[in-house]
UniProtKB/TrEMBL annotation:
<feature type="coiled-coil region">
    <location>
        <begin position="2"/>
        <end position="36"/>
    </location>
</feature>
<comment type="similarity">
    <text>Belongs to the SEC2 family.</text>
</comment>
<dbReference type="InterPro" id="IPR040351">
    <property type="entry name" value="RAB3IL/RAB3IP/Sec2"/>
</dbReference>
<protein>
    <recommendedName>
        <fullName>Rab-3A-interacting protein</fullName>
    </recommendedName>
</protein>
<keyword id="KW-0175">Coiled coil</keyword>
<feature type="compositionally biased region" description="Polar residues">
    <location>
        <begin position="67"/>
        <end position="83"/>
    </location>
</feature>
<feature type="region of interest" description="Disordered">
    <location>
        <begin position="44"/>
        <end position="83"/>
    </location>
</feature>
<dbReference type="Pfam" id="PF25555">
    <property type="entry name" value="RAB3A-like_C"/>
</dbReference>
Amino acid sequence: MVREANVKQANAEKQLKEALGKIDVLQAEVQALKTLVLSSPTSPLGELPSVGGGSKTPFRKGHSRNKSTSSAIMGTQPDPSATQPIVRECREVDSQLFSDFKAWREEPTLERSCCFLERVYREDIYPCLTFSKCELGSAILEAVEQNTLSVEPVGFQTLPVVKASAVECGGPKKCALSGQTKTCKHRIKFGDSSNYYYVSPYCRYRITAVCNFFTYIRYIHQGLVKQQDAEQIFWEVMQLRREMSLAKLGYYKDQL
């Protein structure tokens, strides 16, 4: 009898230890789940099993989204069509500038002193041809006005050339107008002069923008532009002014 009682007591103590061990494991799991929920704001607290057993909601494996929170987030997203209005490019004739242009067109002249050209010189031409080498920039403007400026690719075959100083004329890797180290794909010269000046793609674009403007107003001056609509011709001139404005601000197109 005593031996049987001892065996039962030993078995009971063993079962008690196993039960206490299981309780410790379950408590550790519950604590781990609490920590996981608190560290993850997107996980809903309502789906956790209650430690006291009061909640009937089963625990679901994997990520579950709170519908009310998700709806609130989706509702606050802006409508792209409402925040990004459609923009179109528009234009409007400046009445004073158009009046000056029409007066110039009736009696076209290439003199800087006329009202229309004086404004173009001040706002576009002078800034576009202002370089670090001021004297060379002034010489370019004079040559453009006289239509004696030549611009050609560096690889263009010509007669033997007697250069001025290397510092003054630049070289294939140095722009004569800016003085900066740039790859120069073109060079310029004045009239029948034998001196060539290497220019960078950016400086070349500024020069050609001014040349294009002078070419068109020279055509108007010579009566070669036959359009009767003054406004149409006006906008052609404004487009050429726009190219000069972009060039002086640093925008240019390079020939590849």
